[in-house]
Target: ABC transporter ATP-binding protein YxlF
Amino acid sequence: MIVNVENLKKRYKKQLVLKGINIKIESPQIIALVGPNGSGKTTLLNCMTNLLTVNEGSIELLGKSHKDSSLFYDVSYLQDNRILYGDLTGYDHLKFICQAQHIDQSKIKEVVERVGMGSYLKKRVRNYSLGMKQHLLLAMVIINEPKLLLMDEPLNGLDPTSAINMRNILLELAEIGTTIIVSSHNLDEIDRLTNTIYFMKDGALLKESLTDLHLNQYEVSVSNTDKAVEVLNAKGIPYSLAEKGVLRFEESDVSLQQFIDCLNENQIEIISIENQKVGAEKRYRELFEGEASV
Model:
């Protein structure tokens, strides 16, 4: 088992922030963690890495208790750039990690080239831009070639070129068997990384595979919308209206073929049927309409 979180609860004073979280990850993959500000994403990651004490529940990473310090030879956590030391250089940070984890310092050159931060490696971090700090944080969490990588907003401050590079590095890590849990506000990038998303809402976790949602939602364009609506209502077949002439249908108890047959039997011409892709942003809007920003 790569990750096993059972009934995790976390309180701040009297407020229950995490409400019985359960996560089981048995095979390497990329999973996105998405939710509004204040929904508990960072709190969850901090609990998983033992930076916060949990009130109830258990956490195991790679088959060990999350409190086992030896675990962090194989687990990395990309946090906010406030963990960086302004008076140290990027090289100092990477050298320290190599010394602490008994990693050959030749890895520094390799990871610096991979991330693309060679031109400012020897500069003090207080002179780094936000994007440069994100590059350093990425280098720090991949230098030990982790089996499990947790990431809190890794795309903050990155220009498009750097964001693409970050994405490619994460996909390469996934290819070689690294499990990645990434919290991000960038829903477009989430769509490019994974179809598996844990949506966090009010301290609870909703796991969804967008691949499954892609398969059963359709927009059907018909010649006579009014007649189609009348027929579907009479038959009790669920639908919604997308725009004039277009019906939105989701397979559940009624199959797409039954939906089509109903229209055909009533001489309603079907102009087109389009399988709808449900991206992270679209699903987010459905779940959190009217709530705080992501």
